[in-house]
């Protein structure tokens, strides 16, 4: 079975947030094998991706009044989230160039988001800000007990609105909300934290998804959401329960670990902080004496510290066979021999994406130099348990990740980290 492992290094998060983060990520089980990759709209809405549409369809969100704030970390989400102030000008606008108009394609739809409500009613996400037709409207409404419920309204393409689905939700904590409409059987569904909470059967008819969308505020009727929203995804189909749970923890939506020190998460999920200085091996092929690949990073002192030295990643180096490419914090790439055959590099705005394939395994590295952030993914089986470095061996057991180059497993972070310093490098 092919497996996906993700490392996310973030070098600027406050250490105290780590405790709440660990609790947050255990909210419900998921299996990254099923993580869907076919979203027709995908706004991670966090520190790394901000308002970008990561589906590749170009519907980047905007903050028309500049009254929605990116907060990082945000109540345990180390990547951060956007905070809505609960007033008419605090909203995000999502253009629709037709990419997520599912009425023209499958006619089925899945919409999901992470939400942290402060306590008042208000819209989470809905089509058509002018409220002519709402297609799918996710809102928090006051229930009969004076608390909040999650309510979804479906509007058909001809303007007919059907009975909404509602279910209770928690306050002042994160919950994941998924809404689906299956056009094949005319069923609507609501999932909270990966569990089906409500469903209903409706008369046939496609939804009015031809409009742009908005989050956080509505004028008709007047309602404004107060709290955090992040990781909005739209699919032009219904997802399985396993896909819902995996999509909730999509690599572009989550990151873990404290900030200020370079904080790493091994390929098996072990979190630790290490203050290195100079070049270190993150991960390499340890299946034989002649390593086929190696990924290293350069840790250098931060500019905004005084009393104590703190470091961050300022460059990454990918070596495959005889090829090598270094990308600095300005995303400028330097190639060892002037050309690359095995390593592919693509520049996407402030990001550099490097990828290569060996045996049955594809490796992908995403580097955002100005933010000193990177993530590493691999899909394949051959190198599982055959890698080594600061990121461990990817054998599924986090307990043996602190293995030095000589094969000895240690407990001390500094001893482990310094053992992977690249010899002969000048910094």
UniProtKB/TrEMBL annotation:
Residues 251-427 form the VWFD domain. Keywords: Signal. Residues 1-22 form the signal peptide. InterPro entries: ConA-like_dom_sf, VWF_type-D. It comes from the Eukaryota. The keyword Manganese does not apply. PANTHER family: CUB DOMAIN-CONTAINING PROTEIN, LAMG-LIKE JELLYROLL FOLD DOMAIN-CONTAINING PROTEIN. This is Uncharacterized protein LOC102806473 isoform X1. It comes from Saccoglossus kowalevskii.
């Amino acid at each position: 079975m092919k497996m996906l492992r993700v490392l996310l290094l973030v070098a600027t998060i406050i250490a105290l947030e780590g405790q709440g983060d660990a609790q947050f990520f255990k909210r419900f089980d998921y299996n990254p094998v099923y993580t869907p990759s076919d979203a027709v709209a995908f706004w991670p809405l966090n520190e790394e991706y901000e308002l970008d549409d990561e589906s590749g369809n170009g519907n980047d969100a905007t903050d028309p009044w500049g009254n929605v704030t990116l907060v990082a970390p945000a109540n345990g989400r180390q990547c951060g989230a956007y905070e809505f102030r609960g007033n008419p000008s605090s909203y995000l606008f999502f253009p629709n160039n037709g990419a997520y108009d599912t009425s023209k394609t499958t006619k089925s739809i899945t919409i999901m988001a992470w939400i942290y409500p402060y306590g008042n009613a208000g819209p989470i996400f809905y089509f058509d800000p002018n409220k002519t037709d709402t297609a799918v409207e996710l809102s928090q409404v006051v229930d009969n007990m004076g608390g909040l419920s999650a309510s979804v309204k479906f509007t058909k393409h001809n303007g007919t609105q059907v009975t909404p689905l509602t279910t209770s939700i928690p306050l002042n904590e994160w919950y994941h909300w998924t809404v689906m409409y299956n056009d094949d059987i005319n069923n609507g569904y609501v999932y909270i934290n990966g569990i089906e909470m409500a469903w209903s059967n409706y008369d046939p008819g496609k939804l009015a998804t031809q409009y742009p969308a908005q989050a956080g505020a509505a004028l008709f009727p007047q309602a404004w959401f107060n709290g955090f929203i992040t990781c909005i995804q739209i699919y032009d189909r219904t997802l399985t329960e396993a896909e819902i749970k995996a999509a909730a923890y999509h690599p572009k939506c989550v990151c873990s670990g404290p900030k200020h020190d370079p904080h790493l998460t091994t390929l098996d999920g072990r979190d630790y902080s290490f203050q290195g200085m100079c070049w270190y091996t993150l991960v390499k092929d340890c299946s034989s004496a002649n390593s086929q690949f190696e990924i290293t990073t350069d840790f250098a002192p931060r500019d905004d510290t005084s009393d104590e030295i703190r470091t961050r990643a300022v460059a990454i180096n990918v070596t495959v066979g005889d090829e090598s490419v270094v990308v600095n914090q300005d995303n400028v790439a330097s190639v060892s021999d002037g050309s690359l055959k095995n390593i592919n590099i693509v520049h996407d705005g402030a990001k550099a994406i490097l990828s290569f394939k060996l045996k049955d395994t594809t490796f992908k590295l995403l580097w955002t130099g100005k933010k000193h952030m990177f993530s590493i993914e691999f899909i394949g089986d051959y190198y599982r348990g055959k890698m080594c470095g600061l990121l461990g061996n990817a054998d599924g057991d986090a307990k043996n990740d602190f293995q030095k180059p000589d094969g000895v497993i240690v407990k001390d972070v500094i001893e482990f980290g310094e053992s992977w310093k690249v010899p002969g490098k000048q910094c």
